[in-house]
């Protein structure tokens, strides 16, 4: 049935981390959030960064056109940028923590990250002896995870700011734009419920459902037909071309109508996550360019010199595709690199022998849409881990983890009590698996426990 529900897979015990490492990641996450916000509002930089991939990537060509439409006039785009970003890290057994990728649009699963922490806390309290035996590498307390509160508080802050600016009657309103036949509804509903408990009225629509339903009120107020003024628009869709497809709309070129809807939203005074600028700023292309910046260039984006050093280190090593980097890949051991394109949502990385196969297929025009990243090799957990998938118990002997750290910024200001930090998401998988997404791969929900 299309209306059936399946629980997300999860571990029965958490992943150990030292207090020093956790604090370092929280600090680095705040720095990266500050950096990405500045990059997302530097429209000239984004244009120069994305233009080279325009010819070889139709979707990013369309995104860049949308970005130009929003910022082409002399008038500043009136939307209030709300950056909700998840920075994903792995702990390499040689170099330590390094960034895997930014997630600046539809950065989800934070509420589920909190729920698995709550489950581990319950198991630790209810079955202490068994829990201790299964996680004997961890000796400290569970690492608190308040992702639902952190994310909802940031959205509430931005929503109430817009509402107060206009002072019109009625409740503050939040619109979540979702995909057709969305299968991750429970994670989204947890966030909506938290917002409702803060007094915010929530609504859900697809891009198709918004077509011809939005209009302009006084002072660039964004109005939704049948609902009223909107204060925040939050995208859980829009990171792939198919989100803009509408076969029952008469248009000269695919996806133009629904992309125009997104442009229309940003031309109004409403809090928006993610802006097109934020989506471009967190792309693999920009990530690669940022990894090659010098300290002075980071400082130009508003970082201190000390922050620039941390950003430079944790961004790791990425290379553009060129004859030189192709030769380097050929000469390197097969486990040295990962080949990435600009896709979002999992399943867009190539490993091992597949890298050279793909590189030989690429035309020079397509080079700019791909990049090489030095592959990270985390140390697996010291003991087997029990996971639950589709109601069945499995043992994994080589579990490794990807640490997603949420950060929030509103109008270039941290939006949480912890300097923009807003909770975490841990996804773990077998070291043999190359795809760790909970929905798109072999990943399972996990949480953290201090090892000291």
TrEMBL record:
- Which species is the source of this protein? Salmonella enterica subsp. enterica serovar Uganda
Query: Which controlled-vocabulary keywords does the entry list?
Result: ATP-binding, Glutathione biosynthesis, Ligase, Magnesium, Metal-binding, Nucleotide-binding
Keyword Transferase listed: no
PANTHER family per the UniProt record, alphabetical = GLUTATHIONE SYNTHETASE
- List the GO terms this entry assigns under cellular component, sorted alphabetically: cytosol
Cofactors that this protein relies on: Mg(2+)
Under InterPro entries, the record lists:
Glutathione_synthase, Glutathione_synthase_a-hlx, Glutathione_synthase_C_euk, Glutathione_synthase_N_euk, GSH-S_sub-bd_sf, GSH_synth_subst-bd, PreATP-grasp_dom_sf
Q: In which pathway does it act?
A: Sulfur metabolism; glutathione biosynthesis; glutathione from L-cysteine and L-glutamate: step 2/2
Q: Which family does it belong to?
A: Belongs to the eukaryotic GSH synthase family.
On the tree of life, the source organism's domain of life is Bacteria
Glutathione synthase substrate-binding domain location, by residue? 174-281
One of the entry's Gene Ontology molecular-function terms is: ATP binding
The enzyme's E.C. designation: 6.3.2.3
Q: What is this protein called?
A: glutathione synthase
């Amino acid at each position: 049935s299309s209306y059936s529900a399946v629980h997300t897979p999860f571990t029965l015990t958490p992943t150990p981390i030292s207090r020093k490492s956790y604090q370092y990641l929280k600090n680095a996450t705040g720095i990266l959030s500050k950096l990405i916000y500045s990059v997302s509002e530097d429209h000239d930089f984004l244009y120069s960064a994305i233009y080279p991939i325009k010819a070889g990537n139709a979707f990013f060509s369309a995104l860049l056109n949308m970005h130009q439409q929003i910022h082409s006039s002399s008038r500043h785009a009136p939307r209030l940028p709300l950056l909700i970003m998840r920075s994903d890290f792995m702990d390499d057994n040689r170099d330590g923590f390094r960034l895997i990728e930014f997630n600046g649009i539809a950065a989800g699963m934070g509420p589920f990250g909190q729920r698995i922490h709550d489950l581990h806390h319950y198991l630790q309290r209810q079955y202490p002896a068994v829990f201790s035996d299964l996680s004997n590498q961890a000796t400290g307390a569970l690492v608190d995870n308040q992702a639902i509160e952190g994310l909802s508080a940031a959205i509430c802050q931005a929503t109430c700011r817009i509402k107060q600016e206009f002072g019109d009657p009625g409740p503050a309103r939040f619109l979540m734009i979702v995909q057709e036949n969305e299968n991750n509804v429970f994670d989204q509903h947890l966030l909506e419920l938290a917002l409702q408990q803060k007094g915010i009225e929530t609504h859900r629509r697809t891009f198709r459902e918004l077509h011809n339903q939005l209009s302009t009120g006084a002072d660039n107020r964004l109005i939704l037909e049948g609902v009223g003024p909107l204060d925040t628009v939050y995208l859980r869709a829009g990171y792939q071309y198919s989100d803009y497809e509408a076969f029952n709309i008469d248009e000269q070129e695919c996806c133009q109508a629904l992309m125009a809807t997104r442009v229309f939203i940003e031309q109004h005074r409403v809090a928006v996550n993610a802006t097109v600028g934020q989506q471009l700023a967190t792309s693999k292309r920009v990530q690669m360019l940022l990894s090659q910046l010098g300290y002075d260039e980071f400082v130009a984006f508003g970082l201190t010199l000390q922050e620039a050093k941390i950003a430079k280190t944790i961004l790791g090593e990425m290379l553009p595709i060129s004859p030189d980097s192709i030769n380097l890949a050929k000469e390197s051991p097969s486990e040295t690199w990962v080949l990435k394109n600009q896709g979002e949502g999992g399943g867009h990385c190539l490993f091992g022998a597949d890298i050279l196969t793909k590189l030989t297929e690429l035309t020079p025009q397509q080079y700019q849409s791909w990049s090489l990243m030095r592959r990270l090799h985390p140390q697996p957990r010291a003991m087997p881990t029990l996971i639950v998938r589709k109601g069945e118990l499995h043992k994994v002997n080589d579990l490794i983890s990807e640490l997603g750290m949420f950060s929030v910024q509103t109008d270039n200001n941290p939006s949480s009590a912890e300097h923009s930090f807003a909770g975490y998401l841990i996804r773990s998988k077998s070291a043999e698996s190359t795809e760790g997404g909970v929905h798109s791969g072999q990943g399972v929900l996990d949480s953290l426990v201090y090892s000291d």
